[in-house]
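Summary of Year 1 activities. Much of the first year was spent building the evaluation harness for sequence design. The harness presents a backbone, in tokenized form, and records the residue chosen at every position. We chose the following record to illustrate the format because it has been used consistently in internal testing since the harness was completed.
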């Protein structure tokens, strides 16, 4: 029995097929565009910078996996929801989303359906100002491993709502995760020789350093409680294996967390670091990058609205 599609649905399918053709063509290394921006407007494609609209991407993800390729970066420049499935019984998109580019700038929140989000092995740097969500048809939840994976060697957490755990999920062993801001609402276990550098952010859960990983906390006024009350703690590696640590981060954020390191199966180290000029310059640079991402709005975007 034939099914009649409304004009809007036919147009949506056509746009999806057209974008799929563009993406397949762009998947060739010789033809990939330099920059891809994901937003809520129409498809605008050229050899340098392309704008992929959420509705067109969503139409592909409804039933198929999608790989987006760019020679330089993929940027989410608006809050984007690609979770709606108009034609499947679940009402959500089913496909997996794969980013293939050296740098991903997640400037705003991105929502997918029940598929996975993969930061391809080519992705070396991820800058998180927004968050990644999944929608299963009834509820929206933060993505986490195994639905969120990657092999980035450097992840920078820049936004106050960005999720520090998602930075760990998209990183590879030996990666460096720099936290200027962001939220850790549960325990953070740093493993596989990763290096977590805390300059700012909101820490709620405990810190666990495992598998030869390191956690460097930049700030001051540190105090440690190992069972007999809080005592001032100087800079350097923590000597206690477990306890409670509190103090001020370089950003001015205060924290009080439990910690575990260097014993009981945990082979990592936690170090209390000063605020040297190099760290300040580094933090300032990353913060500026975060502001740039939030404000970034290409000039010619106005012409395609």
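For this record, the design step produced the sequence shown next.
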């Amino acid at each position: 029995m034939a099914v009649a599609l409304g004009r809007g649905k036919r147009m949506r399918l056509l746009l999806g097929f057209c974008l799929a053709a563009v993406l397949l063509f762009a998947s060739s290394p010789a033809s990939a565009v330099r920059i891809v921006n994901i937003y809520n407007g129409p498809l605008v494609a050229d050899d340098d910078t392309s704008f992929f609209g959420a509705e067109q991407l969503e139409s592909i993800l409804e039933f198929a996996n999608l790989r987006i390729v760019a020679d330089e970066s993929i940027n989410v420049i608006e809050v984007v929801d690609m979770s709606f499935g108009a034609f499947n019984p679940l009402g959500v998109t089913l496909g997996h989303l794969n980013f293939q580019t050296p740098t991903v700038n997640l400037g705003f929140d991105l929502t997918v359906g029940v598929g996975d989000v993969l930061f391809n092995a080519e992705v070396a740097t991820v800058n998180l100002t927004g968050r990644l969500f999944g929608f299963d048809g009834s509820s929206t939840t933060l993505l986490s491993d195994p639905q969120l994976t990657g092999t980035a060697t450097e992840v920078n957490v820049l936004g106050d709502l960005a999720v520090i755990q998602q930075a760990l999920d998209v990183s590879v062993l030996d990666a460096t995760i720099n936290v200027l801001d962001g939220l850790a609402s549960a325990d953070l276990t740093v493993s596989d020789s990763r290096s977590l550098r805390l300059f700012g952010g909101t820490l709620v859960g405990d810190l666990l350093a495992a598998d030869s990983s390191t956690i460097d906390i930049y700030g001051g006024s540190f105090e440690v409680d190992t069972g007999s009350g809080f005592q001032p703690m100087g800079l350097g590696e923590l000597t206690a294996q477990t306890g409670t640590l509190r103090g001020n981060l370089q950003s001015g954020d205060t924290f009080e967390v439990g910690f575990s390191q260097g014993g009981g199966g945990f082979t990592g180290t936690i170090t209390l670091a000063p605020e040297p000029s190099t760290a300040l310059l580094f933090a300032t640079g990353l913060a500026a990058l975060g502001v740039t991402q939030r404000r970034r709005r290409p000039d010619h975007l106005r012409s395609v609205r």
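The radius of gyration is 22 Å. Quantitative recovery figures across the full test set are reported in Table 2.
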